[in-house]
Amino acid sequence: MTEYVIETPPVVAIPVTGTDAKFPVRRVYCIGRNYAAHAVEMGHDPDREDPFFFQKNPNNLDVSGEFPYPPHTSDVHHEAELLVALKTGGTNIPLDKALDHVFGYGLSLDMTRRDLQGIQKKMGRPWEIGKAFERSGPCGPLHPVSEVGHPDHGRLEFKVNGELRQEADLNQMIWKVPEMISYLSEYFELAPGDVIMSGTPSGVAAVEKGDVMVMTIEGLGSLEVKVT
Known about the structure:
Blueprint: E1 13-15, E2 22-24, E3 28-31, H1 36-41, E4 53-56, E5 61-62, E6 66-67, E7 76-77, E8 80-86, E9 102-109, E10 112-113, H2 114-123, H3 128-131, E11 137-138, E12 143-144, H4 145-148, E13 155-160, E14 163-169, H5 177-187, E15 195-197, E16 212-217, E17 221-227
Parallel strand pairs: 3-15, 5-11, 6-17
Antiparallel strand pairs: 1-2, 3-4, 7-10, 8-9, 8-15, 9-12, 13-14, 13-16, 16-17
């Protein structure tokens, strides 16, 4: 007798540098407006306020190096973000213990159907149709803390077809990684396999089929994704 009535869905996992083992993903939390300049370009006050989060689905993450242009949109934007992967979790995690829960860091893109997201905003509806569609989270391999430490500064840049679109330093994040983890744990029970996409700098803009996107973070390498 089988345990499940349908075939078990595959485990979503991210490669890890230096090993053949992979990091299994449980949940994907995304923080919004975590760089002041991006908050301004999206029409919001850059002053520090309580962070807000939305979620993508684990199987939205994709390591193939390709981003299929999604349907029902004509305005897909790139958002280059540091990805944080947790090895342990809990609730009400103290700020000074938050980094103890991090397994490693990587590069990720929060691809967004901006036109559909805008419609949802105006109607006061959730954002999933603009944020959580298939393969909307291109990402690269994880770099374990044992290799890279906890990067709290370093240049982030993003280019499309060689043209610089986004640039910032990780130290410009309004809410730092320990604060994100601690804050999230007040509202959710974090667990091994959770990942956090930590927000994007200013310069978000549309991409087209055939574009080649290249993201780099100092100390964490690069991520190249082609829009197909």
